[in-house]
Each structure stands twice: as structure tokens, then as C-alpha cells.
Amino acid sequence: MRIAVTGSIATDHLMTFPGRFADQFVADQLHTVSLSFLVDNLDVRRGGVGANIAFGMGQLGTRPILAGAAGFDFDEYRAWLDRHGVDTTSVRISETLHTARFVCTTDADHNQIGSFYTGAMSEARQIELKTVADRVGGLDLVLIGADDPEAMLRHTEECRSRSIPFAADFSQQIARMNGDEIRILLDGATYLFSNEYEKGLIESKTGWSDAEILGKVGHRVTTLGAQGVRIERAGEDPIVVGCAEEERKADPTGVGDAFRAGFLSGLAWGVGLERAAQVGCMLATLVIETVGTQEYQLHRAHFMDRFTKAYGDDAAVEVRAHLV
Predict the structure, then answer these.
(1) What are phi and psi of 185, to 5 degrees?
(2) Burial class (CB in 10 A: 0-12, 13-18, 19+), 83
(3) Which residues pair with 239 in a beta bridge?
(4) Are strands 219-223 and 229-232 parallel, antiparallel or unpaired?
């Protein structure tokens, strides 16, 4: 099963200020703020929802096709993804712009000051999925993840016009989209991904009820945080899968991306919705135990031991046949 993942490719530059931002502000001078913070450390992490999902699928051996836009500074990041099983040939490289970048400083009270540079992500709208499909011999599914909004709309319309099944995954872009845009992006999707809060926001912005949305998509996949995930289909009982037990909670960033990577990998293996959701939940657990969205290591024996403990022998036998 050939799955293309569209979505942002970015790096996070995270710094820590040992003091408190609040101590540096003068109440009657806030209209002329000019501050510089001497930070203790810099942590550069690879990220972007498209790259995070593709990385997870690569770890599971399903060879995803990443179709996003990056800058002329992408060589090192590309090599990392290539080494971890991601097909990066369809990544568009900007000739003039840097890869998208999030720069954030956190103080001693965990307050944050951050900026997001869109950069090359704005060129994702120039990617044509037909070119990607022709190169790999056709696409069975396209995940349309959070990206340049124009790119998300173009990819969705192209999937419809070319009869390519697609999964809608608005993620953080839902905040800036209006109801008309969301209706366009989800109508006809084979899968609609969201967390529980985003689910309510989708219904509020579109004016469509849960039942109406279920009538417009094949499957509605809603992550429930510590409670796992719920998969709904019109006219059928929902499938609910719980989370695997975590050994520690280090960093929740990227957990949703990891679930999607595991779920899509399960679909690629053809193991069915419940098993696919279990794989997604297991991979998400590995990510929450690790600082950074692509810093976890998937050791097959360890993964299967924990998967078996969480979901039982029958589920493990089915998944183990594909996890090689």
C-alpha cells in the first residue's frame, strides 16, 4: 500500500531562560519593549507534522512518501529521514527560503515566547500529487496534514478529482480555518483525524452535527488523550482502543503524529482498524516517553513485548507478522 504524507517539515529551536520574563517587563513601558534574554541552552529538534508522521511510518517499515516543502538547508534533515525509511524524493526544495522554523524561549515559570517562520512551507501549494503518483506507480492513500492552507486545499481537490482516497488531518491549522474551508477539506475523506477538542471545533465551525459529519467521511478517528482512541463509522458501533501503559511521561509533543504513523502503518499492513489503532497507540506511548518528536528508537522485540502486554497474544501474532 503506497501512502503519501503531506504536511509541514520544520525544525524547533528551543531555548531556556533561567529567570522570569515577568521580572523584565516595566508596566508603563510595554509599548516600547526591547529585550534580549541570555539563555542557558539551545536544543534543536526535527519536527513538522508531515515529517513526524513519515518518520514513525519509516520506523515501522512501511516506507511512506513524504510530500512537503523544505528549504535549501534541508540536506541534513533529508539524510536523517532517508536513513529511517522515508522516501523523500517528492519533497520540494525551495531555492530561496529556509525550512520552516519554530524558535521558542521558555523561562523558569514555563512561560514561553516563540515565533514560527513559515519559510519554504509556503511553497507546498506548488506540489502536484499526480507527479508523486506517477513516480511511485500510483497512490492508495494521501494523508493531508497541517501545512500551508492553500496546499491543503489544493491536495484535497486533487485527490477528489483523481479519485485518490485521502485522510483529512487539520491539526493546528484548524484554528485559522473557517467553516467553508473545513467543509471542503473533510467532505469525502476516507479518514478524518482529530483530537476530542478539535472534534468539537470542527462541528462548531462547520455547523454540521457529529452524525452529519459521519455521513460525509468514511471513518472518524478521534484521539482521546490518556483514554486512547475512538473510531466511528456511520451505522456501526464505534471501536474504542485504550493506550498501552507508559513507563514515564517525558514530553507529549508529537504523540498525535505518532498515533497517525502507527495507524496508517496498520492500514498499509491490512490488519484492520482495531489492530491499526493498537499499533498507533503503542507508538504514541513510545513518543510520550521521549523528549522530542523523532528521538525515540523502535526496537522490534521491545515493541512487541509491550504490545503483547497491552493488547494480548492474538493481536501480537497478527502484528508481529508485519513488523520485521
Answers:
(1) -75, -25
(2) exposed
(3) 231
(4) antiparallel
137 CB-near residues (< 8 Å, 6+ apart)? 2
Alpha helix ranges (H) inside the chain:
49-59, 75-83, 129-136, 149-161, 179-186, 196-206, 210-214, 255-269, 273-288, 300-311, 313-320
Write out the catalytic residue numbers.
Answer: 257
Give dist(CA 118, CA 69) in Å, integer.
10
The residue type found at 191 is Y
Give me 321's grid cell. Answer: 507478522
Sorted by sequence, the CB contacts under 8 Å of residue 78 that are 6+ apart come out as 70, 88, 91
- Describe the crossing of helices 273-288 and 49-59 by its angle, rounded to 10 degrees: 110
Q: Could you give the CA distance from residue 47 to residue 53 in angstroms, rounded to a whole number?
A: 10
Q: Tell me the whole-structure pTM to 2 decimals.
A: 0.92
The closest of 144, 131, 182, 150 to 53, measured between CA atoms, is: 144
CA 154 to chain centre: 19
What is the sign, positive or negative, of the torsion defined by CA atoms of 47, 50, 52, 58? negative
Mapping DSSP to helix (H, G, I), strand (E, B) and coil, where does residue 43 land? strand
* Digitized pLDDT (tens) for each residue of the chain, 324 residues in all: 999 999 999 998 888 999 988 888 877 777 777 778 899 889 889 999 999 999 999 999 999 999 999 999 999 999 999 999 999 999 999 999 999 998 988 888 878 888 889 999 999 999 999 999 999 999 999 999 999 999 999 999 999 999 999 999 998 899 889 999 999 999 999 999 999 999 999 999 999 999 999 999 999 999 998 899 999 999 999 999 999 998 888 878 889 999 999 999 999 999 999 999 999 999 999 999 988 889 898 999 999 999 999 999 999 999 999 987
Cell of 102: 519554530
Q: Do the beta carbons of residue 81 and residue 102 sit within 8 Å?
A: no
